[in-house]
């Protein structure tokens, strides 16, 4: 008996060659705006942070114990003793930032962050600059080779960033001392808000989400981890926004401490 004939609708269409489009993109919207703003924002932030990290002054407000996060932990021999909560172990030379023990890890954490990777692959390397816009590169090897293979270090950078967030939290609480007693001013509010934002960004990390809820077969057998994973997943959905928010809170907190420390204006005090 012969097989029944295949109805026409079930027959696959003839494979067609892809359209030859010479234009780089057919998009007519302002697709270039997001990469452009990303470049401007990141370059401005990096320039500010570099200047501040090497300035080696205006990082500490003695009256209110405010320490900028850019100098935390302050571990250089050049740090004022009151600001060096964790000892002074590094030589005081102009090319070593006072927080040289934490800054490289924070840089690695942000550089290998999934969101920032997307941001600089698109905006700086144009690889590709936007959806449906051809990239200028002819070859693509992704993150399978050196140096981009190093992006896998992100999970380790996360552990370091987690520890540094604890240190930043310690700094924020240590700043509630004014003279010999309790003190509270606008600087405390700014330091605390920055720490809350830093925790939100750090905990929203994709590696954190995996550490909290990954490698489990049954969430029902791990209710605590499931709850933690649900919380982290919710934050994770806002990771891009938190990445930019924390760049803002870090720069703003640093600027406020610098301004008060330099005497450009006084801290608004509520108590002490
Ligand atoms: Fe962005 Fe981990 S993915 S900090």
Concise summary:
By secondary structure, this protein is mainly alpha-helical.
Explain this structure:
- This is Membrane protein.
- It is a single chain.
- The chain is mainly alpha-helical and 272 residues long.
- It has one domain.
- The chain has eight helices and six strands; from the N terminus they run αββαααβββααααβ.
- Strands 1-2 form a two-stranded antiparallel ribbon. It has a two-stranded antiparallel sheet with strand order 3-4. A two-stranded antiparallel ribbon has the order 5-6.
- Residues 113-115, 154, 158, 205-207, 239 line the site of FE2/S2 (inorganic) cluster.
- FE2/S2 (inorganic) cluster binds next to helix 3, helix 4 and helix 6.
Question: What layout of secondary structure does this protein have?
Answer:
Layout lengths: L32 H23 L4 E2 L4 E2 L35 H9 L2 H10 L30 H21 L2 E2 L2 E2 L1 E2 H18 L2 H8 L9 H14 L2 H24 L6 E3 L1
Antiparallel strand pairs: 1-2, 3-4, 5-6
Helix pairs in contact: 1-3, 2-4, 4-5, 5-8, 6-7
The site of FE2/S2 (inorganic) cluster has 9 residues, from helix 3, helix 4 and helix 6.
What do the pLDDT scores average to?
93
Write out the strand line-up for the largest beta sheet, numbering strands in chain order.
1-2
Assembly form of the protein: single chain
Structural class, by secondary structure, is mainly alpha
Largest sheet: 2 strands, antiparallel
Alpha-carbon Rg, integer: 25 Å
Strand content: under 5%
Number of helices: 8
What's the shape?
globular
Secondary-structure element order, N to C: HEEHHHEEEHHHHE
* Hetero compounds: FE2/S2 (inorganic) cluster
| Total strand segments | 6
Counted up, domains total 1
Helix content: 40-55%
End-to-end gap: 98 Å
Low-confidence stretches: none
């Amino acid at each position: 008996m012969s097989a029944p004939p295949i109805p026409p609708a079930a027959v696959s269409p003839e494979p067609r060659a892809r359209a030859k489009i010479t234009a780089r993109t057919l998009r007519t919207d302002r697709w270039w705006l997001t990469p452009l703003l990303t470049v401007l924002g990141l370059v401005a932030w990096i320039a500010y942070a570099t200047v501040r990290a090497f300035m080696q002054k205006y990082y500490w407000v003695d009256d209110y114990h405010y320490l900028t996060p850019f100098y935390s932990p302050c571990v250089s021999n050049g740090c004022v003793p009151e600001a060096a909560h964790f000892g002074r172990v590094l030589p005081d030379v102009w090319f070593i930032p006072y927080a040289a023990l934490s800054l490289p890890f924070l840089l690695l954490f942000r550089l290998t962050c999934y969101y920032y990777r997307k941001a600089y692959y698109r905006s700086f390397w144009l690889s590709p600059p936007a959806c449906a816009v051809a990239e200028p590169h002819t070859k693509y090897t992704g993150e399978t080779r050196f140096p981009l293979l190093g992006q896998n270090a992100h999970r380790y950078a996360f552990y370091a960033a987690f520890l540094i967030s604890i240190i930043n939290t310690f700094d924020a609480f240590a700043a509630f001392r004014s003279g010999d007693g309790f003190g509270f001013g606008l600087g405390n509010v700014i330091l605390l808000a920055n720490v809350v934002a830093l925790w939100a960004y750090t905990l929203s990390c994709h590696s954190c989400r995996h550490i909290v809820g990954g490698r489990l077969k049954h969430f029902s057998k791990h209710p605590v981890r499931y709850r933690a994973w649900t919380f982290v997943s919710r934050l994770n959905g806002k990771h891009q926004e938190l990445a930019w928010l924390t760049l803002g809170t870090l720069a703003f907190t640093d600027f406020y401490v610098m301004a008060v420390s330099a005497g450009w204006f006084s801290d608004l005090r509520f108590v002490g």
